[in-house]
Specification:
The chain has about 150 residues and is mainly α. Helix content is about 65%, strand content about 5%. The chain has one domain (about 1-145): Clp, N-terminal domain (Double Clp-N motif). About 45% of the residues are buried.
Amino acid sequence: MYEKFSANVERVIKLAEEIAREYDMEYVGTEHVLLAIQREGTNVGAQILTRHGITGSKLKNEIDRLTQKSMEDTWVFGRLPGTPHYKNVVAIAIEQARQLESKDVRSEHLLLALLRESGSVAHQALRNLGLSHEAAVKDVLAIEAEKG
């Protein structure tokens, strides 16, 4: 599965694990992936968040508010266990990459997957901050067109 991930996504996943540790969590959740996309900052996913006015502080505040309400079950993925939603997001990101005819899974595919994984903390945070899957898809296509 990892051979299909771009170097950027590998950085995002590693950063998500670091963020989970910063939160003193023993799992990696969708919220950590979302924060990692934003924090890494050089990826298309981060550009889409910025286009929609979703700053690091807004995102962190919303995720902190949501995670105080509930905790998810965990499953083992890599070094830290990941939530079931995290596992689903990885699978959805791969599918999004295929649908968009990408050679590898990139940050924008992770962001689109987070927007499709209803019930997850990241999905709820993005919706609360006003970003929809449809708007993000339009942004992905627009950014690809801008690249030429």
